[in-house]
Write a structure and sequence with these properties.
The protein contains four helices and eleven strands. By secondary structure, it is of the alpha+beta class. The chain has one domain: Nucleoside Triphosphate Pyrophosphohydrolase, CATH 3.90.79.
Length: 210
Amino acid sequence: MDFSYGADLRRQVSERLDAFARAPLDTRALRAAAVAVVIVGDGRDGEACMLLTRRPDHLNRHGGQFALPGGRVDEGETLVDAALRELDEELGLTLGADAVLGRLDDYPTRSGFCISPIVMWGGEDPALNPDPNEVAKIFHIPFSELDSPALPNLIDSTAGEHPVMSVPLPATGGLVYAPTAAMIYQFREVALRGADTRVSHYDQPEFAWR
């Protein structure tokens, strides 16, 4: 697959998301949250990238962890509305509903949330204005890194029957762990490879439970 940012890539990703049959998940005991999986051009070599953030260390919840832009769904909001709002609040990137390409499977977290990943087309090298209270750093993850055979990395869980997932991403300087890793990996599998890979069963490290 050609990872050049442009109309052909947008069409291919949209078609694969349209063909993807999302797996149902019992979410009655979980709080709803949505994250934005944003595809952008890097403005340098023309390769498409995914936006990823690291949260500030001072935050009480998930401080210092890697995250996709997003948060809990407010009363009266749709999942898409919440993802678009959080993207604007965290990164200063304002997109409309026409930027949405599709959805991936919901992911249940140990902290009691059901995260719904919304895939979006973010534009060629868009201007970003991150909120320092929510974002310590922004990373542009090249699609060539997402396509690496090194993804994913699995280790035994100390608290569950399923392994903990992480993904090595050189652009971040290290490993990104589930739940974010699970959503990144499924995006790779579905949008870039056309596979029906499921990830909601993969566990998270204990530091991500808080």
